[in-house]
Amino acid sequence: MLERILFPTDGSDGAAFAFDHVLDLAVRHDATVHILTVADTTENGMLQIGGDDVTALEQDRDQIVREAAEQAHQRGVETVTKVRQGEPYREIIDDAERHGLDLIVMPTHGRRGLERFLLGSTSERVVRRADVPVLTIRPDDDVTVTHPYENVLVPTDGSDCANQALAIGVDIADGEKAALHLLSVITITALGTDARPDIQMEALEESAHELLDEATAFADGAGVEPASKAVEYGPSIHQAILTYIEVHDIDLVVVGTHGRTGFDRYVLGSVTEYLVRTSPIPVLTVRAPETDT
Domain named UspA: which ranges (predicted)? Predict the structure, then answer.
């Protein structure tokens, strides 16, 4: 699956943190890493560089990709380097789709000590809009990045996005020889004000187990037997997922998201957004392809 990986970089500490993991993936899968940096020549970007001319900006970007390529070559990883001008998130998405790349890997924020979380950032826009799966990593002290992956978690709610994430998660687990964990979450708030919560809970549990059975059948059909399938309960979906990650030593969580429908909301409300912001491990987001209606 992972033959061509796109790594957008701005030379920041956050990017350097993520790049170590990119190289681990590339070595294991014998992948080529496309190293991309974008000179932000939008109006806001030019204001932020304090009037520096584009030539000087490009020279700085050339040095960033050269240094990253040298680091990759020291580990025997083949690279393609690119410097572009424009709006960073658009250039990243266009490059990934134009060249048929398999994965984009990005940090959720760049500068150490600057809490520029995903919301409103380049990474957030890429996650929402890219057809290519996006692996995000928080470059923070409480984050653990382990490779090769030993335990891969795929939460599911039965949506098209979740099913697309399941397909990628199964592929990743197979390629990494990792244990596949399937999870369905029932929230306490889902019970609402029904006069017979026991009946409603029974229906929710039945539905959750059906989703897991369907996911298990899909994984089995792909030659991957899930190591576990669980129905968990909690005050929120994202908190139940985070708890499962901690208890079961999960190394990677694969979740579905959608970006161009409605108000650009994530699947399951803000669950994916919250996970990308707070997960102690890498998060692989997968957006289901759009279909014409």
Answer: 1-138, 149-287
Q: Provide the Cα torsion 237, 166, 275, 140; round to 10°.
A: 150
The CATH number of 4-137 is 3.40.50.620
The single-letter DSSP state of residue 178 is P
Gap between the Cα atoms of 40 and 88, Å rounded: 6
Query: Which ranges of 225-283 would DSSP assign to H, the alpha helix?
Result: 237-247, 271-278
Q: Domain residue spans in the chain?
A: 4-137, 151-287
List, in order, residues 6 or more apart from 280 with CB less than 8 Å away. 138, 142, 143, 144, 242, 245, 246
Fold agreement (4-137, 151-287): yes
What does the pLDDT profile of the chain (293 residues) look like in tens digits? 789 999 999 888 889 999 999 999 999 999 999 999 998 877 555 545 555 565 666 677 889 999 999 999 999 999 999 999 889 999 999 999 999 999 999 998 754 433 444 444 788 889 888 999 999 999 888 899 999 999 999 999 898 889 999 999 999 999 999 999 999 999 876 555 555 567 778 888 999 999 999 999 999 999 999 999 999 988 888 999 999 999 999 999 999 986 444 334 334 347 888 898 899 999 999 987 665 43
